[in-house]
Amino acid sequence: QSALTQPASVSGSPGQSITISCTGTSSDVGGYNFVSWYQQHPGKAPKLMIYDVSNRPSGVSNRFSGSKSGNTASLTISGLQADDEADYYCSSYTSSATLDVFGTGTKVTVL
Amino acid sequence: QVQLVESGGGLVKPGGSLRLSCAASGFTFSDYYMGWIRQAPGKGLEWFSYISNSGTIIYYADSVKGRFTISRDNAKNSLHLQMNSLRAEDTAVYYCARGLGGGYCSSTSCYHAFDIWGQGTMVTVSS
């Protein structure tokens, strides 16, 4: 099972909105509404930001939103802030492997 | 507060064994599915093991199947990972994590979002 494809990097200025894509296949992202997104600051554990495509866990800012179209899921960060600078990983249910497949990761830079 | 704390990492030679533990606190451990996720240096995340709240349902990724064993002790609020026949490619930070809600499993595959993570413990496999 190959990793889901994410852009290596995305950048934006404070206050702007950015979108991170996560592209898979009909065996994973496109076939099921089971996509999660994680934020990871350097040297820290990942933090769950979105689950089941578009749900936010308690305590996560509503500046973070998730969606899906076809085989591509997306994470949008609105009102970009300095603390949003981190690595972001998507993960998805896959019928091709036993456990979720993760994306390749995207480094978000706040200019 | 809700917390997971891993321990047991270290340096081990190829072919050797190591046992990781994860101590849970601040929540009813026996209510939650748990997972182990690892991250090789400078690389992405890999979810490789999963156990139901009762311990009766267990899954492994192909990369560790037959070498690693996940277990839990609900009376002691602890999760364990026995790692045998370790290889250089097992070198990584190992995280334990709590599953959010019920997750989803078909007959062959599972999905779960993980809402609480430990700080991680480093495992280095090298001669």
- The number of distinct β-strands of chain B equals 13
Structural class of chain A: mainly beta
Q: What is the total tally of β strands of chain A?
A: 9
Task: Determine the fraction of residues in helical runs of chain A and give it as a percent range.
Answer: under 10%
Shape of chain A: globular
Structural class, judged by helices and strands of chain B?
Answer: mainly beta
Question: Any descriptors?
Answer:
heterodimer; A: 111 residues; mainly beta; B: 127 residues; 4-stranded antiparallel sheet
Give a quick summary of the entry:
The complex is a heterodimer of chains A (111) and B (127). Chain A is mostly beta strands. Chain A is built from no helices and nine strands.
What does this structure look like?
The complex is a heterodimer of chains A (111) and B (127). By secondary structure, chain A is an all-beta fold. Helices cover 0% and strands 41% of the residues of chain A. Chain A is built from no helices and 9 strands. Chain A has strands spanning 9-12, 18-23, 35-40, 47-50, 64-69, 72-77, 86-92, 101-102, 106-110. In chain A, the strands form 2 sheets. In chain A, strands 1, 3, 4, 7, 8 and 9 form a 6-stranded mixed β-sheet that branches. In chain A, a hairpin with a 2-residue loop joins strand 5 (64-69) and strand 6 (72-77). Chain A starts with 8 loop residues before the first strand and ends with a strand. The mean pLDDT of chain A is 96. By secondary structure, chain B is mainly β. Chain B is built from no helices and 13 strands. In chain B, strands 2, 4, 5, 6, 9, 12 and 13 form a 7-stranded mixed β-sheet that branches. In chain B, a hairpin with a 5-residue loop joins strand 4 and strand 5 (45-51). The radius of gyration of chain B is 14 Å and the shape is globular. The model of chain B has no long low-confidence stretch (mean pLDDT 95). Chain A binds chain B through residues 3, 32, 34, 36, 38, 45-48, 51-52, 57, 89, 91-100, 102-105, and chain B through 35, 37, 44-50, 59-62, 95, 100-101, 104, 106, 108-115, 117-120.
